[in-house]
C-alpha cells in the first residue's frame, strides 16, 4: 500500500494563504518550519517567504519575489507560476497548517521505519534490538520533546554542567543584575527563562522603574528589547535622557542653560550607542511579541537577547472578544512565560492594579491577591514585584517631587522575598536604590524646587 508523503496542492494553498493574508504571517511562521513542506521545490519557496518575512517583519509579494530572484535567478517568474493562483480565506489557514503538520509527522515516522529496518538486519540480542529501536524513536522525536522541555537525565545533567562551568569560568554571568544593589541582594538578579510581573497602581511609577532598570542594564553592555504598548519609542528615549542628564523632560520645551544642553547631548549619545531595540507598535498579541523578539534577536543581537521588557499587560491584544477575557489573558501571559524559556532570557511584564484595592487597608502595601484584579493569577509568573510608596496615598505628601518608595518582592519561585527601599525622583522619572547616596548630594540639585 502506497503512502502519500505530501500533498502538493495543500502545500501550495498554505503558501498562497499567507501571501494573500499577510496579517497571518506572524502566526504562520510561528507555527511552521521548512519540514512542514515535503516537496523540495515548495520547501525552497517556503524558505524564500520565511527569509523575506524575517528580514522586514512583514510579508508581501514584492519582497517575496526579490527573494525568489536570489534563489531561482531567471526562473523566478516560473516559480511564481508554479505556485499558481487562488484565494484562501484566513479562517482556512489553521486547518491547512494542521494537515501540513500531519504529513510532516508521517514523513518522520517513515524515516524512522527505514532506520528500524536497517537495525533489524543486524545480528543482535533481543534486548539490544529493543534498546536500539527505542533510542532511535526517542531521537527522531527529539525536536518535539525539546519543545516540551523533555530531557533524559544525562541530557539535563550535561546541560546543567555546561551552564555551571560557564558561570564558574566567568564566561557567563550568574544572573542578570538589575543594577539596584538591595534588590539584587534579595533576588540574586534576573534569571534566564523566568517571567517577572512588575505591578503597581496607576501613576505609582511602574514604567519609570522599568526604564530605570533598563538604564542600569544597558550601561553594562547588555542587549535589551523593549516592547512598549503604551508609550512611543521617542517617549522612552526621553525618559532615558532625563535619567542620565538629570534635566527634567518638562524643561525640554524651554530654553536650557549651556550646562543643561551639554548634559542632554551627552545623555543622547549614551542611548544612541547602547545595544537595545524598541517596538512601540500597539495592539500586539503574545504571538506578535514572539515573532518580533525572534526577528530582533536574529537581526540586531546576533541571535540572543539578554532581557525583554513589556509595558504593559492590560494592553496586550487578546483574541476572541470580551467573553472569558480573564481566562484568555491568562493564556497570553502563560505563552510569554513559556517563550522566556525559548529565548533563554528573563521577560519582565508590567501590570496595573487598582489603587482602590489598597485604599481602605491600614497597610497600603500591595499583596499578591491584588494581582487578581488584573485578570491574571500570580501563578503564571515566576516572580511578582510591586512598586509602592505611602506618599501616593497621603494627600500631604503626594505632591512631593521625591518620594520614599519601595520595591516589594512578593513572590520569588527560586529565591527570597523582601522589601528594597528606594527613592523615586518624579521630575526625571528615576528610581534610585535607597542604599546609594541621594542625587541631591551627588549633583547639588534640589528636585523639590525643579
Furnish the topology, listing elements before pairings.
Elements: H1 8-20, H2 25-31, H3 40-56, H4 61-72, H5 76-83, H6 93-120, H7 126-140, H8 142-147, H9 153-168, H10 181-187, E1 195-201, H11 206-218, E2 224-228, H12 233-245, H13 258-272, E3 276-279, H14 286-299, E4 307-311, H15 325-343, E5 347-353, H16 355-359, E6 383-388, E7 402-412, E8 418-425, E9 430-433, H17 439-443
Parallel strand pairs: 1-5, 1-6, 2-3, 2-4, 4-5
Antiparallel strand pairs: 6-7, 7-8, 8-9
Helix pairs in contact: 1-3, 1-6, 2-14, 3-4, 4-5, 6-7, 11-12, 12-13, 14-15
How would you characterize this protein structure?
The protein is α/β, with parallel strands linked by helices. It folds into two domains: 8-112, DNAb Helicase, Chain A (Orthogonal Bundle); 181-449, 3-Layer(aba) Sandwich (Rossmann fold), CATH 3.40.50. 47% of the residues lie in helices and 13% in strands. The protein is built from 17 helices and nine strands. A nine-stranded mixed β-sheet has the order 3-2-4-5-1-6-7-8-9, with helices on both faces. A hairpin with a 4-residue loop joins strand 8 (418-425) and strand 9. Residues 142-148 have low confidence and may be disordered.
Structural class: alpha/beta
**Can you tell me the CATH class of the largest domain?**
Alpha Beta
Please provide the ordered H/E string of secondary-structure elements.
HHHHHHHHHHEHEHHEHEHEHEEEEH
Q: Superfamily at the CATH H level of the largest domain?
A: P-loop containing nucleotide triphosphate hydrolases
Low-pLDDT stretches: 142-148
Sheet of most strands: 9 strands, mixed
Structural domain tally? 2
Q: Rg, please? A: 26 Å
* Number of helical segments with 4 or more residues: 17
